[in-house]
Design a protein that fits this description.
The chain is mostly helical and 144 residues long. 60% of the residues lie in helices and 3% in strands. It has 6 helices and 2 strands. A two-stranded antiparallel ribbon has the order 1-2. It is elongated, with a radius of gyration of 24 Å. The termini are far apart.
């Protein structure tokens, strides 16, 4: 299929196909008569995989590693487990950060009615936890 048809079938902009080609994720055949790129159903499957992996938080380097493993055929479960465990650890760290940020924002919302409170968001981002920041001096740490 043509690049436009492939982009439409994969649900991505044409520029995404070009980007994936530059990254080496795709290598469409060339039409012998016109020289235009022709995408296969496998190319569309691959684009959808890359898109879904990206939505799940995998970076392009991760996607590259997955595609390389896929091209090797059967992947030893220990190698797959290593990649998955690393991603799980990353997600767990993000969840901790998001929970800390949620608590900081909740504390901010609870304390925002008094007209001037120390910013719990800064404390959460620096790891001090919600409400654990030092007493503000001047305008630093005070929301207006």
């Amino acid at each position: 299929m043509t690049p436009t048809d492939a982009a439409r079938a994969a649900g991505v902009p044409l520029s995404t196909l070009r980007y994936y080609e530059r990254r080496g994720f795709l290598s469409p055949e060339r039409d012998p008569r016109s020289g235009y790129r022709r995408y296969s159903a496998d190319d569309i499957r691959r684009v959808r995989f890359v898109q879904r992996a990206h939505q799940l938080g995998f970076g392009m380097g991760d996607v590259e590693a997955f595609l390389a493993l896929s091209e090797e055929g059967l992947v030893p479960s220990s190698r797959l487990r290593t990649v998955v465990d690393a991603k799980l650890a990353d997600l767990d760290a993000r969840i901790v950060d998001l929970a800390r940020m949620r608590a900081a924002l909740a504390a901010l919302a609870d304390g925002a009615t008094d007209g001037g409170c120390a910013c719990p968001v800064e404390a959460a981002l620096t790891g001090a936890g919600p409400g654990a920041g030092a007493a503000p001096t001047g305008d630093h740490g005070v929301l207006r």
